[in-house]
Amino acid sequence: MVISTNASQSLDAKDRHILALVQHDAKLAQAEIAKRVGLSTAAVNERLRKLDQAGVIRRFTAQVDPRAVGITVTAFVEVFIEHPRFERPFLERVQSLEEVQECHHITGEFSLLLKVRTSDMEGLRDLLLHQLNSMEGVRQTRTIMVLSTVKEESYVSTGVRGEVS
User: Fold this and answer.
1) Any idea of the CA torsion for 10, 14, 20, 24, to the nearest 10 degrees?
2) Which CATH number fits domain 66-145: 3.40.50.12780, 3.30.565.10, 3.40.50.150, 3.30.70.920?
């Protein structure tokens, strides 16, 4: 599944600044956003509604520390799909697996790159052997274990200087 937005949505500097602020703190009051970007609260509310409807804002979420909920293993899994006819069912199945956080089409020897998280090595083994490798059309997987994470962000730069001030 390819994620797309309404391409006709044109973002001005105010929209970009609002996006930067809500990415940094989704609980920031609209009155505070309005003050920082120089608009009325009603204007900020309307802009947020339009950005949400256009798909520019995908959703508002809380970022949870994986270790705090017992998720201690992070890995990247390269997947080789042997024929394009097997790709759609594989992607549909991956969408339903909570352990799979990201799925990307990639260049090179493999077809897809998955970012996965599990509670332990047994969970990773189960995911690899019983969920991914057992699917029709999966010829091969290669797993890269994460030893430590230096930076992990979901923030997307909006191109505004001093974005969160």
Assistant:
1) -140
2) 3.30.70.920
